[in-house]
Each structure stands twice: as C-alpha cells, then as structure tokens.
Amino acid sequence: MDQSEVAATVRRAAAGDRAGWDALVHSFSSMVWAVASGYRLGRADTGEVVQTTWLRLVENLDRIKQPEAVGAWLATTARREALRMLKLRGREIVTDDESQLVRDDTHEHFPGPEAQVLTADRNRRLWNAFERLPDRCRALLRLLVVVEPPYAEVAAALDMPIGSIGPTRARCLERLRRLLGDDGPTDLSGGA
Amino acid sequence: MNPTPERADDALLAELGEVLRRDHQPPADVIDAAKELFTWRTVDAELAALTFDSLLDDEPAAVRSTAAAPRLLTFEADGITLELEVEADAGGSRRLVGQVVPPRAGDLELVVDGRTDRVPVDDVGRFVIALPDEPGRILLRLTVAGHGISVVAVV
Prior knowledge:
The complex is a heterodimer. Chain A is about 65% helix and about 0% strand. Chain A is mostly helical. In chain A, helix 3 crosses helix 4. The longest helix of chain A has 21 residues, at about 160-180. By secondary structure, chain B is of the alpha+beta class. In chain B, about 25% of the residues lie in helices and about 45% in strands. A five-stranded mixed β-sheet of chain B has the order 1-10-9-6-7, with no helix packed on it. In chain B, a hairpin with a 2-residue loop joins strand 6 (about 105-110) and strand 7. The radius of gyration of chain B is 22 Å and the shape is elongated. Chain B starts with a helix and ends with a strand. The interface between A and B is large, with 54 and 43 residues.
C-alpha cells in the first residue's frame, strides 16, 4: 500500500469497515511483530505486546492525526508497549546506543524447531551470526527485511533519526560479516 | 567485477531476510487475534484511550523510585477521564483505586481471565477493587451517567 492507500484504509476502518481493518493488520503485522520481537520478551509476552499495540490502534483510530503515517505510529506504539512489558516484568531496559553495546554474554543457541528448519549450513551460520549481534543491530536488521524504504517505521521503532539508519545498517552488516568469518571460512558470493 | 560495498550489503541483507522470514513471521493466531480486536469498534461501550502511564511517561528521576511509588494510569473517553492507581500492600496483595472525572456514581466490572467482579462507583466517582497478584491484562467496564466505557489495561 502506498501512503494515500494507507490513509484511506485507516479512514475506512475508523468508519467501521472491517475489511479496512483486516487490510491494516495484513500490511503491518510483520513490522509490528518484528518490533516486538526485538526485546527478548519470550513468545507469550511478545504476542501480548503485539495484541496491545493493535488494541491501542483500535482505541485511537478516530484520533490518528496523520493516517498516512499509521505505520510509524504502530512502530512507536509497539516499542512503548514492549518497554511497558519489560518494566512490568522488572527487567532492565537495554541501552539504545548501538556504540555502547558489546554483546559478550554467552548466548544460548536455539535448539528448538527453528534450528531444525535451518538445515542448510550457510543459513545456520548466518542465523548463528545474527543471534550474536548486539540487540540494537538485531532489531534494526529484523525491521529492514520487512519494512520498505523510506523506513519511517524503522526510525519510529528504534527512536532513531532516519538519517542514521543507513550508516547503522552498514555497521551492523559489517559486524555480521565479521561474525560469519569467526564461524569459519565464509564465501559471501556463494550459497544463495 | 567486484560488487560495490552497498551492493554487497544489499545482497547480505536479502540473504538474511530469507533466513529470518522462516521464523520471524507473526504466528497465525497473533494475526487472527489482531483482526478480532476490531469487534471493540462495534461494542456499545466506548473504548477509552490510554493517555498517561507513570511506568513510561514519568520523568527519568521519578522512574527510579517506581518501586515505592504506586503506578498511575489515565484513560479518556467521551468527555470522561478515569484515573487509576495500582496499590500493593506489604503482603503483595494488589488493588486498583479509581477516580471518575467529573465525579459520577455508577458501576464497575473487572474482567480478568473470564472472571468478573463488580463494585459500585460512589457519589464522588471513586471505586476500589482487588487485582490479581500477577500483572496482566485486565478489562474494566464502567457504567456512569447512562453510558458505558471499556478500559483495557496491562497492570
């Protein structure tokens, strides 16, 4: 959906059109899920954050000032709901500054169904490298694969100026490349 | 010909996207639940909007003392403001103290996990109701001055 379609769809939903609401859920679910997944809340609480985020939109459908920017509104709301959940659970909020993050805790790898699905060696190494990235990089990259440019939702979700997304993306991908290298010989041109 | 760094970044991100998409899709039940929320628009009672939560909206200096300070939330709907305060006693029991502004008498229902409790809202718009020990999502149904307001809070 382009911006004018998004705005029209928000207005339709606000007027009571269920199909309009369903279209919004379809368009933005991946992004909202990706934002909520960036806080290591666990499956149940991540689902709760997503649910509460959509509920806030139901509450505010009539009040949204820029319906064309509902994606950024949802991203901001999902971030706030995730922070609320972290605080309710009594957990520390991770720093927002990528440069301050050194992720050296020993991270447990997923032994679950996720890992079993990733049978291809290249994919598994990519997954492992991704899992070892700082939280901020993981959150950014997870969003960049589901959000279209110009990344207003990414900026809103990470509370980051839109101009910082490009340079941070480059730094995070460079880290990812180094981590892939740590895992053994890497052929970036192959495997795709 | 060597790819430009930007091209290489695009390729790596695309590759990562393939890997992430496998288990970073929102589960179907989460999508269905989001769609189902639209029924709130058709319920008679108006759904109040959260406008303040001390857990998130306080100044940083105040946030540090949240362990001692009660949590405050404000919801607004239809010209009525609902102030909520979550109190906990030394034994860990929690209760919700509410104030309807402007003050109105009425009724309040608290729905948690399908169980409903009812208390009156007194003449000055106040009510007190027990909360479960564990934080979670609650639904309040407030009936004052002839109309219904629904409040969904995570407390």
